[in-house]
Amino acid sequence: MPPTPAARTPRAALAELLAGNRRFVSGQPVHGHDVTAAAAVASGDQQPYAVLLGCIDSRVPLEAIFDQTFGSICVIRTGAHVLDRAVCGSIEYVVGQLGVRLVMVLGHERCGAVGSAVEALRSGRLPEGSLRYVVDRIAPAVHEVGADDPDAHPLAIRRHVRRTVATLRADDLLAGPVGAGEVAVVGALYDLATGEVALLPEE
Ligand SMILES: [Zn+2]
To answer: How much distance in Å is there from the Cα of 132 to the middle of ligand 1?
Structure first.
């Protein structure tokens, strides 16, 4: 049996995360100042209560914006939180082996990776190398909102979060616990200007 995280339900885990973001926004973090080796050692065995999938953007450090300490959340970051099998397998591990009940996909305003996909689809010039893989994963969201829409960038950011959430909810090993209400996968957006995280409403 996996260990029982401090937050035993998806709802409790979400409340804990959002409370951390409020501490961060208010400038009164309780953990953010204690980034020391001693604090890391004191964390002991890990009992994370959430796994967060976010973007590589240097302005969006997930532990900081949720005021989390060592051992409390698992963090995965790729350009525009693009999924691949390693990412999905990692989330499956955290949910299945560590007993985590909450998966959050966090997009952010002015995401450069989504912007690159919008530009690539508008110009028809697709990048080479593995960056092409990343752009290809974002492209469906851009197509859905319309690459030529003047607001394609902010709209595609939101659409891409929703698509990522939907993919994870349908994941082979996650669909069962999600369907049973034991695990929640939620989408959210980080505002670079205010530091606030807002949940994306269900459609
Ligand atoms: Zn980004």
So the answer is: 16
